[in-house]
Design goal:
There is one protein chain. With about 450 residues, the protein is mainly α. It is built from 18 helices and ten strands. The chain is elongated, with a radius of gyration of 30 Å. The mean pLDDT is about 95.
Length: about 450
């Protein structure tokens, strides 16, 4: 590999000749080798957007020349159009403020902008003007999360709800045996099952929507410890205005920079909302797996789309692969939430020092859930077939239907009828005819699953 010599405040060192980054990034690459994972693309893109908005704000305030600002803006546009993650190699497990990632972006833009301007654009003096890693990285967490939730996660949530609504309209009228404790219970319609799932998703959507206004409050302008040292007094509102115009989201300066630098409470709350959605998806995924079980020795109430062979040794076996994948993704989101909770406690005095971990886990959770929602909608719910024949047979022999007779014959007599029907494997209607004075027509009306589902 060919190298060039770069300098920073600590001296000279070799940097790969084709790297756009400079000395501080190279030091981070050499120092932080705990794990190969680097920060995710949405986070890098958020940092680039931040630098672009800062250049525009600083030009408006007369702190950068038009030539300098234009070069930084054009450099940012080029990086946003083609973001090569090889130029952003700093790992997640680095300095807790994320300073190395901030400087990585500063250096890449300084290199590119210097070429555009044909003059020296400095990573600290120009690209990072009026900023600190301590306010830039928390801002990037909020910006990247807000963009990912509004642009990817919420549309995926709507897509799954719409798929469930369509399925309910097509097959929701079919009756099935309800279950509590995994045991037979009273009947209900599939539409009622699906409505429970839809309500879970709607609840999760409301929780996420409630977090967006908090994510749109930004730390940028607080600089090192929240006092705004070295930033123009009007930098924060000018920056927020420029970023809002770039992204289409209404970003504003935080009402309290000390809060936004020293805590990650908003990220913790957002992760909690993501965990709520993960729990909902786990419930839905497991319901699908149970209802699909069989097809001969299980419940076999539904048939999921057959997507791939299910066994390397058992021919013809087909497994519920999408619900299984979604369950694993949901488990990972719950794990991420635990890590983010611990990271949120690491706000020592004026700065939280687990910011890269919060960024990586929060964005991975959003990505996992977005993909899970789309996969469930497109590869499980669309194409799901209700096994009306199986559910009808089970309903006909369900002794729990005798619950409907409680008000007229009493609990104990109804329980005796249910036990006999189960022991003799006979329809409850036949046994009830032998032990009550009701006619067959009266019992059919009382035990009608459709009436009971209403």
């Amino acid at each position: 590999m060919n190298y060039r010599i770069e300098h920073d405040s600590m001296g000279a060192l070799e940097v790969p000749a084709d790297a756009l980054y400079q000395a501080q990034t190279q030091r981070a690459v050499q120092n932080f080798q705990l794990h190969p994972a680097s920060l995710p693309l949405p986070f890098i893109r958020a940092l680039l957007l931040i630098k672009q908005a800062a250049a525009l704000a600083n030009a408006e305030l007369g702190l950068l020349t038009a030539r300098q600002s234009d070069a930084i803006v054009k450099a940012t546009e080029a990086q946003l159009e083609h973001t090569d993650l090889r130029q952003y190699p700093v790992g997640v497990y680095q300095t807790g403020s994320g300073t190395s990632s901030n400087m990585n972006v500063n250096e890449v833009l300084a290199t590119v902008a210097s070429r555009i301007a044909a003059e020296k654009i400095h990573p600290n003096d120009h690209v990072n003007l009026g900023q600190s890693s301590n306010d830039t990285i928390p801002t990037a967490i909020h910006v990247s999360a807000a963009l990912a939730i509004s642009g990817d996660l919420l549309p995926a949530l709507v897509q799954l709800q719409q798929a469930l609504n369509q399925l309910s309209e097509q097959q929701g009228h079919i009756l099935k045996t309800g279950r509590t404790h995994l045991m037979d219970a009273m009947p209900l319609r599939f539409a009622q099952v699906f409505s429970g799932w839809q309500a879970q998703l709607s609840h999760a959507e409301q929780q996420l929507q409630a977090q967006l206004p908090h994510l749109q409050h930004l730390a940028q302008g607080g600089t090192a410890i929240g006092t705004g040292v070295n930033a123009h007094p009007d930098f924060a509102p000018a920056f927020a205005k420029a970023l809002s115009q770039q992204t289409g989201l209404a970003f504003t300066p935080s009402p309290n920079f000390f809060f936004s630098l020293s805590t990650q409470d908003v990220a913790v709350a957002t992760s909690g909302a993501l965990k709520t959605l993960a729990v909902a998806l786990l419930k839905i995924a497991n319901d699908l797996r149970w209802m699909n079980s069989g097809p001969l020795a299980g419940l076999a109430e539904i048939e999921l789309p057959a997507l791939q062979p299910g066994s390397s040794i058992m021919p013809g076996k087909v497994n519920p692969v999408i619900p299984e994948a979604v369950a694993m993704a949901s488990a990972q989101v719950i794990g991420h939430d635990s890590a983010i909770t611990i990271a949120g406690q690491s706000g020592n005095f004026e700065l939280n020092v687990m910011l890269p971990l919060v960024a990586a886990n929060l964005l991975d959770s959003i990505s996992l859930l977005s993909g899970s929602l789309r996969s469930l909608a497109e590869k499980a719910i669309v194409g799901l077939k209700v096994r009306a024949d199986t559910t009808a047979k089970a309903l006909a022999r369900n002794p729990i239907l005798v619950t409907a007779l409680n008000p007229v014959i009493g609990y104990e007599k109804a329980a005796a009828i249910a036990k006999q029907a189960y022991q003799q494997q006979r329809p409850v209607l036949e046994v009830a005819l032998e032990h009550t004075d009701f006619t067959e027509e009266q019992l059919k009306a009382l035990l009608d699953p459709a009436r009971l589902a209403n």
